[in-house]
Each structure stands twice: as structure tokens, then as C-alpha cells.
Amino acid sequence: MNTEQGEQTFVSNAFGTVTSKRVIYNRAKGWFSGGSREDIPLSHVTSVRLETSRSLAASIVMLLIGLALLGAETGEAKFAGVGLILWAALLLWGSPSVVVNTAGQDLKAARGTPWQKGEATEFVEALRRQLFRE
Q1: Domain coordinates of the chain in residue numbers?
Q2: I want to staple 35 with a disulfide (CB 3.0 to 4.6 A). Which of 29, 85, 95, 102 is the partner?
Q3: Would you tell me how many other CB atoms lie within 10 Å of the CB of residue 29?
Q4: Which of 95, 32, 31 is nearest to 58 (CA)?
Q5: What class has domain 4-52+94-131?
């Protein structure tokens, strides 16, 4: 995929775009926010990391409350119980976070949903290949 001026795009997804000259990073992206776009020359990027955050304590509490609500008499309580169990599963699954570091600062993490881990990995690997190319 070529763009103007001989710039080649290696990956473009929810976390940003990696080209042969720059990285377009969706800074401070979260589950419910789009974040802001940062256009950074590759020469300014010092490192990139992928983290997966899980919340074990919160998921256990939600799971226990959800199981208790499943034993309730009303349909609404059972529905809430199923919802809490599903939320607990998402918290255990974990959310990927991509952090791009530049010469001047660490940028805020771009967080994705649990099912976007493959996209996060693809973005980080493409950026690392550009940072460490010969």
C-alpha cells in the first residue's frame, strides 16, 4: 500500500497507522472515547509497549454477585446476574493497551476492548519492525 511521496503503510487499525516515515497514534483512546490523533515522525519514537490489564478482584466480586442474583426469584434479577457475569468475564479476559514513547514524553495509552488484542499486537509489531529496521 503506497501513499504519496513514497510513504508505505504497514498497518492501519483502531490503534493507529504505521508507515515507513511516521506513526499516527490514537492517543488516550479508550472503550468509550475516541482519543486524539498524534502524528509522530518515526525518528521521534523511542519505544512502544503492549500491556494487558485485568481486574481480578473486581471480576471475582461481580461473578459472586452475579451468581447470587441468578438464584433470585425475579427475571430482572436473573437478567442483572447474567449481565454481571458477562462483565466479570470481560474483566478477566483483559483489555490491551498500547503506549508509544517519544523522545520527550510517554504518550497516554490507547486502550482497546478485549477482542482487539490482535489489532494491538499487529500495531506494536509493525511499529517495532520500523523502529529496528536496518
Answers
A1: 4-52+94-131, 56-91
A2: 29
A3: 22
A4: 95
A5: mainly beta
How far is Cα 101 from Cα 58, in angstroms, rounded to an integer?
Answer: 30
What helix, strand, coil percent values describe the chain, rounded to 5?
A: 45, 30, 25
- Comparing 17-26, 31-40, 60-69, 121-130, which segment has the lowest mean pLDDT? 31-40
Amino acid at 65: I
C-alpha closest to that of 110 among 66, 55, 48? 48
| Average confidence score pLDDT of the chain | 87
- Chain position carrying cell 506513526: 23
Q: Show the cell assigned to 65.
A: 454477585
Cα–Cα distances in Å, from 75 out to 72, 82, 109?
8, 11, 39
Q: Which amino acid is at 3?
A: T
Strand 16-19 and strand 9-13: the pairing is: antiparallel
